[in-house]
Sequence to fold (606 residues):
Amino acid sequence: MKNWLNPRSTAGIALISVALVALPFVAASGGQAWVRILDFAILYVFLALGLNIVVGFAGLLDLGYIAFYAVGAYAWALLASPHFGLHWPVWAILPIGAGLACVAGVLLGSPTLKLRGDYLAIVTLGFGEIVRIFMNNLNAPVNITNGPQGITLIDPVAFGAFRLSGNSQFFGLTLSGPQKYYFLLVALAIVVIVINLRLQHSRIGRAWQAIREDEIAAKAVGIDTRNIKLLAFAMGASFGGIAGGIFAAMQGFVSPESFSLIESVMVLAMVVLGGMGHIPGVILGAVLLSILPEALRYGVGPLQTALFGKQLVDPESLRMLVFGLALVLVMRFRPAGLWPSPERRRELQETAR
Amino acid sequence: MSEVLLQADAVAKHFGGVRALRDVTLSIRRGEIYGLIGPNGAGKTTFFNCLTGLYVPDGGGFTFCGAPLVADAPQKAAARGIARTFQNIRLFGNMSALENVMVGRHVRTRAGVFGAMLRTAATRAEEAAIRQRAMELLHYVDIAERADDLAKNLSYGDQRRLEIARALATEPQLLCLDEPAAGMNATETAELRELIAGIRADGTTVLLIEHDVKLVMGLCDRVAVLDYGALVIEDVPAVVQKDQRVIEAYLGA
Fold:
C-alpha cells in the first residue's frame, strides 16, 4: 500500500479526514440524492463491519443478519413515533435497540451453536424470514407493528433541540439533513472500525479465529466455543440493531419490505466481495456495493439514450444484470475478495496451486 | 511412591456394538512419563478422547488431582489442567506459530470484550504477558525463529513441536501426546525424546501414546498396554517387554 494512504501515518489520517469532511459537500453539488446515497454507503459500512464479526472473524455463515437491523429499526420506530405516541430520546432508544437486537442474536445463536456452514446458513436464513414475517403480521389482534403498511412519521435523531433533519446553519454554512446524518454515521463508523480492529487483535479475536480454523482444537486448548460463538452473534447483532435505529430515524418510515432476504444477501456480499475478515476490504466492499447500483441507476439510462438514441433495456433490470455480472467476475478472478488480508490471499493461492 | 495424579476407574466406551474401551483401570503418578501402547484400534486414542472430554465415557470415570473429573466438554478438561496434542496434527493453520501458542493462553487469561474494546491498562498488560509467554514457549520447543510463519507452512516436525508448545501454554499438569513421533525420522525422534524428557524434568506429567517401541521403552517410567479395548498390563518397561501376552498381542516374537 502506498505510504500516504496508510491510515497509520499522520499524513494518511489527515488526508482521509479531509476527504471525509469534503465528501458530503462535493456530493451535494450533484443534488441531495447523492448525499443520501453516501449516507447509505456508510450505513452499509457499519452493517457490514457488524456482520464481519460473525462471518469474517468467527466464521459463522449468517444469512439472516438483516433481522437484527429490522429489530433495531422497529425498536426506534415504535419508541419514537406517533404510532404509540412515544417520543423517547436517542440516548435511550439506541441502547434499547442494540440490546433487543443483542437478545435476538443470542436467541438465534443458542440453538444453532452446533451447526456449521450450509446448515447454519439455512437456519439463519429462516430466522431472518421469521422476523420479517412477524413484523408483517403483528398488526392483529393487537396492532404492534402496523403490518405491511409500516410505521410513518418516525422522529429523526435529535440531541436536545438540535434535530438532524432539515437544514441548519453552522458558521454561515448551511448543512442539509442528509449531510448532518452523514457526519453522525461517519462518527459511528469510526467507532465500529476501532472496535473491529481492537477485537481482532485481542484474546477474544484470537479465540474466534481459532474456532474458524479448527473447532475441536480450539476446544482442546480450553476455549469455551459455545460462549465465544454466542458473543460473536450478540456483538454482530448489536451493531445491526444500532444501524437499524439510525436507518429508521433517517428514513422516517419503516416497513417489513426493507428487511427482505436480498438485504441480508447484499450485506453478506459486501463482506465476502471486499475480503472476509479484513477490515479495509469490508469497508471497500460495502462502499462499492452500495454506490455501484445507484451509479448504474443514474448512469445506464442516459448512457443508452446517448449511444442508441433511445432506451433499449429498462435501466432497472440492466442494473441488476451488471451488478450480478460484477459479482461473478470478482469471485472468479479475485476469490479472496477485492482487498483480502495478506494471509487469506496466500491461503487461496496455495490451494489453487 | 509418589502421589497419583490421574486415576482411571473402569472407564468404558462403546460405539454401537464395538466396545472400544472395556473397564480400563490405570493410574498415572505425578511427575512420571507414562506410556500407552497397543496395536492399532486397541482403544488408545479413545482413551485420550474420554480423558480430554471429547467423548463422554459410557461407564467408569476419572479422578484428577484428587477430585472427580467431570469432563463432558474439552474446555473443562483444559481448565482442570489436562492438555493434549492430536494424532493428526490440528493446528490453526492460517494463524502464525506465535498466535497458535497465544491461543493456548486463552484458558489462563481473562480479558473480555469490553477490556479489548476500551483497551484498558489491565488488558494491555495481559496481552503483553500472553505474547511474552508464548514467545518463551516457542523458544522452549526450539522453533522461535518461525514465530511469524503461518502454522501450516512449518515443517512436519516443527508442527508437532508447535502443537506441544500450544498445549504447554495452557499450563497443564498432565500433557497428553498422541503419537508425537509418528512420521518422524531418527534425528527428529531423538530431539523429540529430549524435549519430552525436558518437559517432565520441568514438572509436567506426560501421558504418551506411541508406536515407536524403542522410544516408549527408553523414555517411559511405566507403560500400559491396551488390546481390544482392555488393559493387558501396567508396569515398568522391563516387565512389560517380557510379558508373554504383550509379545503376542503387540510386540511380536
About this structure: Chain B has ten helices and ten strands.
